[in-house]
Amino acid sequence: MAEKNTMVVSEATFEDEVLKAEGLVLVDFWATWCPPCRVLGPILEEVASENVGKVKVVKVNTDENRNLAQQYGIRGIPTMMFFKAGEELESVVGAAAKDRIQERIDALL
């Protein structure tokens, strides 16, 4: 379900693409069966395209990457987590409006 400006990551690539990434990374924990996740997908694609070079947006399918979901305590989806320099800064549970997501990005940059 990755689009033009978002990237799918897995347990195998999470460390390199998220924890070792430079700058801010927004991780979307989602699943194909989740209606709010499907609503959030296009919003995150817009956010990613409008913030190229500022934030990296990646998607983790929780059904395919259960260990990551468990490791980060994902209890509800969608959950967006913001990482910088390998550290989790904050998380947002549920589908959020584009302007709220942008506010969080601006505050964390």
Topology (elements, then pairings):
Layout: E1 6-8, H1 14-19, E2 24-30, H2 35-50, E3 55-61, H3 66-71, E4 79-84, E5 87-93, H4 98-108
Parallel strand pairs: 1-3, 2-3
Antiparallel strand pairs: 2-4, 4-5
CATH topology: Glutaredoxin
Radius of gyration in whole Å, from Cα?
A: 12 Å
Which strand order does the major sheet show?
A: 1-3-2-4-5
Task: Work out the helicity level.
Answer: 25-40%
Bulk shape: globular
Work out the helix count. 4
- Class from helix and strand fractions: alpha/beta
Give me some keywords for this one:
109 residues, alpha/beta, Glutaredoxin, 5-stranded mixed β-sheet, 28% strand
Fold and architecture overview:
This protein is an alpha/beta fold. It has one domain: Glutaredoxin (3-Layer(aba) Sandwich). 36% of the residues lie in helices and 28% in strands. The protein contains four helices and five strands. It has a five-stranded mixed beta sheet with strand order 1-3-2-4-5. Strand 2, helix 2 and strand 3 form a beta-alpha-beta unit. The chain starts with 5 loop residues before the first strand and ends with a helix. The mean pLDDT is 95.
